[in-house]
Amino acid sequence: MHETAGTSEISLAGRPEPRSRAGGDEAVRRSSLGLSVALLVQYAVGLWLNLYVTVPARDAGGGVLAAVGRTLANGPAALAVHAGLGLVLLLGSIVLVVRAVLARAGFFVVTSAISLLAVLGAAGSGAAFVNHGSDGASLVMGLLTAVALLCQLINLFRLSAPDHVSGQPRR
Q1: pLDDT at position 37, please?
Q2: pLDDT interval class at 21 (50, 70, 90)
Q3: Residues of the domain holding 121
Q4: What is the Cα–Cα distance from 130 to 148, expressed in whole angstroms?
Q5: How many domains does the chain have?
Q6: How would residue 122 be classed by pLDDT, with cut points 50, 70 and 90?
Q7: Mutual orientation of helices 106-132 and 64-74 as an angle, nearest 10°?
Q8: What percent of the chain has pLDDT over 70?
Q9: What does the pLDDT look like over 68-101, one tens digit per residue?
Q10: Contact present, 28 and 96 (Cβ < 8 Å)
């Protein structure tokens, strides 16, 4: 039984309970779930764009940052949403790697880093698609999104394993 006094928990024995750190397994689990949902939304928006939106010819050429900037500034709106969500995914992926490092969870550092690399690769492929209209770049973007999602699902599976839930370290 625990009493909450302010922001710290006190046990009946009067000793402070260990607090979960912001970089702990719970933070990794929440980040992985959020990224999984965002990756699925991004994938669906990308499929819709592939079928129904044409990238304006004026957006061709330039590098990754130029492609993102032109897309966010000039649209079309659905393409700008896709690029904006991609930036959010990139930021969220970086945060997840940092949380996994802070939790000293080697397994999650590896899977989260692979996911980050996949998101970076998908962003580069997206920029290549905007710049050159290459179907191959579109395919790579979709496949790397699937790799990133798989890494997040592995994180969630590993964090929900029965011996992990029981408090046994699983790193």
Answers
A1: 96
A2: very low
A3: 21-165
A4: 21
A5: 1
A6: very high
A7: 70
A8: 78
A9: 787 788 778 888 889 899 999 999 999 999 999 9
A10: yes
Average pLDDT for the chain: 81
User: What DSSP string runs through the chain?
Assistant: -EEEETTEEEETTSPBPPPPPTTSHHHHHHHHHHHHHHHHHHHHHHHHHHHH----GGG-SS-HHHHHHHHHHH--HHHHHHHHHHHHHHHHHHHHHHHHHHTT-HHHHHHHHHHHHHHHHHHHHHHHHHHH--HHHHHHHHHHHHHHHHHHHHHHHHHTSHHHHTT----
Residues 6+ apart with CB under 8 A from 38: 85, 88, 89, 92
Instruction: Judge whether 8 lies within some domain.
Output: no
Does 4 map to a domain?
Answer: no
pTM score over 0.85 = no
Residue 31 falls inside a structural domain: yes
29 within some domain: yes
